[in-house]
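INTERNAL AUDIT FORM
Audit reference: QA-55
Scope: verify that the stored structure record matches its stored sequence.
Auditor: D.O.
Record contents follow.
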Amino acid sequence: MAKQFEGPILPFLRLDVAAALPKFRQVQDQLRMAILHGHLRAGTRLPASRILAGELGLSRQTLVRVLENLKAEGYLEARQGAGTFVSTALPRPSAKPRITPARGDEPDSALPRLSRIGDLSRDVSAAIGQMEQKPFLPNQPALDRFPFAVWRKCWNAVTRGGKAAMGYGDVSGELVLRQRIAEYLALHRRDPCDPEQIVITPGGHAAFTLAALTLADPGDGIWFEDPGPVTTSNLFRTLGLRLCLTDVDDDGMDVARAMARYPDARLAFVMPSRHHPLGVTLSLPRRLALLEWARANDAWIIEDDYDSEFRYDGAPLPSMRSIDSHDRVIYAGSFSKALYPGIRVGYLVLPPQLVSAFRNLSGLIHRSVPVEAQLALAEFIGGGHFASHLRRMRGLYAERREAFMEAGRTTLAGLARIDCSESGLNALAWLDGGREDRTAHRAVLEAGLQCYPLSDYTIATPRPGALILGYAGVPTERMKTYLSRLAEALSRS
């Protein structure tokens, strides 16, 4: 009985009772044009004639006549016991060309009028996350080792037979997930907090957006490390913030120079546990200086702790928030690297005085993160599966890191120098012989591999050419083979 309700809703079917054209011809012509224009794709199942006749106010006999005519013309086909479908023998309709004019290619009058933020977004790109998942893709966890069966059980456990996951959620995030995150931070990051200080967001970038919108006005300055993650710098620029570029050396962000050049900045965005892409750690003296600057200038620090779980020499480093005695740090974390990028669950740990404002603005912008994902994640963490997964992945990534460094030192000799920090999922390959990293990047892509050129992360301060390579997603037994292919590509660049 349920089968008769299958098929798409067809709102384009309209009957004109005043028209001279018979009703069956009106329906027949509209269906034919919908198929020709690709609105009804090949293989689409049509609603049963009884249902469609009722929706249009026609007799079933009239609808059967329409369908039979279209079958005879070759637009539809009948499948025994299954129903009526759009014919799969028809050629695909030609797609209209999608033209995206570059800025300045057309007069301003040809461009739509946008908001200030919309206008700024024309000149930036968010496409870095759309790269193909090929060997050496940076920031890529070992998806082949994810415990899918356990995750599915957690998902089923919180959604089976109940309505709790089907409504709107708490705008701060589900309490049980905030409790699990607070427990995890206290145990693994040595950073206890109250679950009420946590706001769940749809990923890390949503967390940064929320912080910027809540704490800064367009034109306000934000300290930003150069080089730094390109999509994040594009985000802040699009929101109208003034990028205050700060140098990075072996001790991390050059805080003293930033204080001298940009003392009046409103925000500082920093990756203290592991800078991306250089992999360095912010030293303790600089952490303390940054905290003191924020206190003295009524400024705020956004701490991006994006992959601190994966440190291969000793325990993960304490967060900056854990040594902040003046409540100036907004801690941002996510599960994209620890679990998988598509989960799109991030979180903020906030100073108590900011919770209400962040909570309200999050509710206005996001409403809530999908409740099912939150509850499943809480079950996954609470059942001990998250800790077990991290333990396994640390061992696996340490093994893959060692294989990468050992094979890379010999395979890439004379072509690049491997620089692999003691944490994270990526390494740098500093190119020898004056090679230009964007040229090398194109050669690597042609070889069926993936990487990012360091130049794409550099905003103002030129650096020697380097490639950012992800080793965590590459099986150990394939590492040498892929590195040999990488060497061949670099030798041609």
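Auditor finding: record pair retrieved intact. The chain has 15 helices and 14 strands.
Action required: none
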